[in-house]
Amino acid sequence: MTEESLVTTAQRLQPQLLDHFMNLINEQRLAHAYLFNGADGTGRQQIAQVIAMRLFCQNVTAEGLPCGQCAECRRIMAGDHPDVVTVVPDGQRIKVDQVRYLKSEFTKSAVEGNQKIFIVDQVERMTTGAANSLLKFIEEPVGNTVALLLTANKNLILPTILSRTQIVDFIRVAPSALAEALATAGVIPSQRYLLSTLTESVQAAKALTAEDWLKNAQVSVGQWFTAVCAGDERAFVRVQTELLPLATNRDLQGTILDMIVQAWHDVLRQQNATLADDQLAFPQVAKLSRQLAQRLSVDRLVAIMTLTLETRSQLAGNMNFQGILEALTLQILAQIPR
Ligand SMILES: [Zn+2]
């Protein structure tokens, strides 16, 4: 058989997230509700399935991974395991009766006390009624259950669901063809990787580089990042003096937060790999991010990125940008060991 196994695919697409979740399960610290936010091709379904396999596998490998061979693993891969309940949209929408089915399964598991895992893909397609039903059982977890909600676009998820789940962002690991297209379009090497994470097209990338916006933002976010990592409270001041003047509209505010996520993602990516400067979003602070990759745990990095993404979702509401960015800065400062 030459086909790549599910575990191998998950490992290739999201090596750090896979490690992170396998560790959580090992330490019995898995939360009861997650939102996996990732575009198609980032491995959100594969990671969800491997988590389910790991929870039920009868023959976990020495590396702490599900074997992929035992009866439990096979049934999960075939979509035929009684304790792994999967819901996908029926047509365009996830309907109330599908959530009702989930709910009855949840209730059963409370009675039986068995481990049960619920996987709802394209959760953004829930009708409001379905979302409200789902909320009820996220709020009142029963028995030994884990809910994995999957979406390609977190911006379409109701804030009430966002606030009750742990959000995990799936960032594309493979270097995209966009980076090459940007090179052809004349974008300088130090901006290519960052732009490929922020935009989907050369045209959108060009708009960001106009009038040196991206260049200035890269410098300012880099300086903010440096101050935060030093535990320097002046990071807080930089929000007002440097980041705010760049974030002149909601889109650019979102872009600044996306850039902050990428600064931490640089660190995370360097924990398992040696990356050249032009493979980093912030090459000008490469030395710092390499040091941090040795100093900070995956858990802490994921926590910081999660905080940033939660802040990103607050933008959808009518929150004041300065307020949320200052709050985020303080929260991250608290995460950095002195
Ligand atoms: Zn197995």
Summary keywords:
57% helix; 338 residues; Zinc Finger, Delta Prime, domain 3; Rossmann fold; 2 domains; five-stranded parallel sheet; binds zinc ion; alpha/beta; 16 helices; single chain; 5 strands
Task: Describe the structure in brief.
This protein is α/β, with parallel strands linked by helices.
Structural notes for this entry:
Helix 5 links the parallel strand 2 (84-87) and strand 3. This protein has 2 domains: 6-170, Rossmann fold (3-Layer(aba) Sandwich); 177-335, Zinc Finger, Delta Prime, domain 3 (Up-down Bundle). Helix 3 packs antiparallel against helix 4, helix 11 packs across helix 13 (250-269) and helix 13 (250-269) packs antiparallel against helix 15. It has 338 residues and is an alpha/beta fold. The protein is built from 16 helices and 5 strands. The structure holds zinc ion. Residues 57-59, 66-67, 69-70, 72-73 line the site of zinc ion (ZN). Zinc ion binds at residues 57-59, 66-67, 69-70, 72-73.
Write the layout of secondary structure elements.
Layout: H1 6-13, H2 15-26, E1 33-38, H3 44-56, H4 71-77, E2 84-87, H5 96-112, E3 115-120, H6 128-139, E4 144-151, H7 159-162, E5 166-170, H8 177-184, H9 189-198, H10 202-209, H11 213-229, H12 234-246, H13 250-269, H14 286-295, H15 298-314, H16 321-335
Parallel strand pairs: 1-4, 1-5, 2-3, 3-4
- Give a quick account of the main beta sheet: strands, pairing sense, barrel closure: 5 strands, parallel
CATH-wise, what's the superfamily of the largest domain?
Answer: P-loop containing nucleotide triphosphate hydrolases
Percent helix range: 55-70%
* Ligands, ions, cofactors: zinc ion
Return the string of H and E elements: HHEHHEHEHEHEHHHHHHHHH
Number of strands: 5
CATH topology description of the largest domain? Rossmann fold
Tell me the β content. 5-15%
Helix and strand composition category: alpha/beta
Instruction: Identify the overall geometry.
Output: globular
Order of strands, widest sheet = 2-3-4-1-5
* Secondary structure tally, helices: 16
CATH architecture of the largest domain, by name, is 3-Layer(aba) Sandwich
Q: What would you report as the Rg, rounded to the nearest angstrom?
A: 21 Å
Name of the top-level CATH class of the largest domain? Alpha Beta
